[in-house]
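name: query_chain
kind: protein
chains: 1
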Amino acid sequence: MKATVTAAILALAVAASLAATAAAAKPRPLSAAQRACLVKAVGKKNADLYAKGARVSARTKAAVTACTKAATSANAAPAGAPCATLSSTDAYLSEGPWNVWDAAVNLRSTGKVRATVLFVDFPDSVGTASPQSIVDGWMAQGVSWLSGTSYGRLSLALDAHSAWLRMPKAASAYGWDDYSISYDDHLYYLRDAFTVADPKVDFAHTDLVYVVAPPTRMIPFSPTFRGEPGAFILDGKKVDKAVTFGQDAYTYGKTVLPHETGHLFGLPDLYSLIGGDQHRFVGVWDFMGNIFDPTDLSAWHRLKLGYLDASQIACADSGKTTEATLTALGATGGVKAVVAKTSPTTVVVVENRQKVGNDAGICEVGALVYSVDATPETGAGPMKVQGGAITGQGCGYGARSDAPLQPGESVTVAGVAVTVISRKGTDVVVRVTAP
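structure:
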């Protein structure tokens, strides 16, 4: 009888405790964007627990902070350039405003950004070059490329560890395929790299990590890691942004670092990931496309990353004709592009590409015309250059390298009529009529 009474009392106590907890747990309101971001970060179950007011893990709290910040941040074009403001979509790495998840994990693209550089080798692939020689070679060239692209608005500082760090497993054991690696395998690779580095490297002030392997066929390419917020905690710092450099960084050199860092900024792949001619979309005209024949970022991407001001964009309003003198995209100052909005999620852009700055290697100069669509995901053609040969070397510098228009030439894209009026020095005068 006593045991029965005791059990009943305990049951009542537990019920009272649960009731008190339920009463104390206040629902936490989430916007649709915040919830979508949180579900992607920590799963539906944890998102539901948070929304119900229940206790959640530190990981979920970190994701909530990142998702809330992203949901309230400005991801549109600069104020004053309404023609360049597109509607939001759910596309991964959209050419329009980033979805709330992408915004939560993007690396800032202006100001001082500090990159910790780790050099890792393996029992079956030993690093022989001095780490400093690699830093001074293609890595420094890539940093310089980004500085030029940003007109000096980005200062990327490399904080490199001075010695090779031995990974605990062979390079062949980390799940690298010809040109793919799963998120989990990538996470595992980084975890081992950070584990061997942590006793010797201070991560307290890092914004991203570059992990450099020797040039081995076991690690053939250089993927970007856009992890969930707080994927790693190192020296009290949340680390969730990294690039793991492989053999292609040594093969293709200076544009691999800008391309992969561009993904951390939130830029998509502009070459095709859906079959067909790989460089049919933009050819050489943006280093998020063809990195083998290096050129610069497009005006659209520079605007998106904060490297151009609204005053440097001329809007071609519907039903009107706009004339503008465009300065070379690679030079500082002046109007850089004419933008005509063709739908809530699409625009047509005209810019001036000359043999200036990072465009020094191009074989044709003039007015470049392309369309931008916020709907397709990375690698599915969100940007499409008009004109030029899709296959072969164009004028000698890769696919679509012969695309720029010359004085007297015209093209119509999505109803937007573009004519090149004249060229003086490196300036180009264009006329754009929007439907």
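note: The first helix runs from residue 2 to 24.
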